[in-house]
Prior knowledge:
two-stranded antiparallel sheet; 72% helix; single chain; all-alpha NTP pyrophosphatase fold; mainly alpha
Amino acid sequence: MLCILTDLYKKQRELDEEIAVNHGVSYSSTRNKRTLALLVELGEFANATRTFKYWSNKQAESKERVLDEFADGLHFLLSLGIDQGFEVDSIEVFDDGNSLTDNLLRTYELTSIFYCDQTRTNYLKMFYSYLVALFKLGYSWEEARDAYYLKLKENHNRQATNY
């Protein structure tokens, strides 16, 4: 699955600039908060998939809800890449043969590694791992991209209404 990211970085930069103006923040002043926010959103995404809930017979939340949670994390991944100058045009994703649960645990691990050592290589590993979850869920990049744009619109509206 090929994930084209160029336009998403551009749109994320615009949102980040709007937030910076509205809240008097910068990339450097929010770096740790954005990393923590990514971890929180990763947890919300995992919760929506219910992949780890072995004690429950309930199915995953709706596809729209899961994609919405994925889009939240995608915002922070893009923002962290912009902050560090690690933007890439695209990432090609393949199934690694592990379970979704293992994939999400690995993404947590890679995010923690990135937090401690903010290199381009660590950023790309973290981003790649996050995108693999789409593949494992059977979702397309187009669905994820569309969910990102829906959330982007909501986030701009939130900024306009003093969220």
